[in-house]
Amino acid sequence: MKLPYPLLEGTLLRRYKRFFAVIALHDGTVVTAHTPNTGSMKQCAIAGYPVLISRSDNPKRKLKYTLELIQVGGHWVDTHTHRTNRVVEEALRNDWIENLSGYQVTPEYRFGDSRIDFHLEKEDEKVLIEVKNVTLCCEPTTACFPDAVTTRGQKHLRALLAAKKQGYRAVIFFLVQRAEATAFSPADEIDPEYGRLLRDVVAGGVESMAYKSIVTVQENRIGEQIPVLLD
Description:
With 231 residues, the protein is of the alpha+beta class. The chain has 2 domains: 8-78, CATH 2.40.50.580; 81-226, 3-Layer(aba) Sandwich (Trna Endonuclease, Chain: A, domain 1), CATH 3.40.1350.60. 17% of the residues lie in helices and 44% in strands. It has 3 helices and 15 strands. The chain has helices spanning 81-93, 151-165, 192-203, and strands at residues 8-16, 20-25, 30-34, 50-55, 65-72, 75-78, 104-111, 114-122, 125-134, 136-139, 142-145, 169-176, 183-186, 207-215, 220-226. Helix 2 (151-165) runs parallel beside helix 3 (192-203). The longest helix is centred in the last third of the chain and has 15 residues, at 151-165.
């Protein structure tokens, strides 16, 4: 998926109230940018880190700027959670994800009292996929989720298990934004209930997948699959 163009270079000064980031541009201008991420952005929202932001000329917007990428350990990390599903949708529609190709794709599918990210259908098979954006590493090369306690994420896991019991194929899909990651695991120290539920639903037949994204200043697209470690 193509990123906005052009992107402006800057340095993160601070993040506050979750949705606001104060950024010093390279010309010395200090601006406040919208931060489309409800998580803690632990390891990412660090003062002094390089960032890339976009500018909108929409007069209806309260903030002209949006935080797009943060550089962590020399790699760009996409913290823009609204883009996560679009990256996965692009991959699904182009059959870039092994074992999830050849389906008709419908985003934002209502299941019970939850809204699941994708509904896939092919002949007699129906699949529900919930996508999570991963920007944290709990070990040097092990990405993990969540970066804050997520009751909403726990609810999604229960919904996937319920769907599996009703005959759906159900998938929890982790899109890993950290280039150094070679594996994924739940962040048990941050949200032990999420880790417990993830293991329970996988034992109940829900599939867990983790794919790395390839993030550049021009685009974010699906990359290689990495193992999910639950033991």
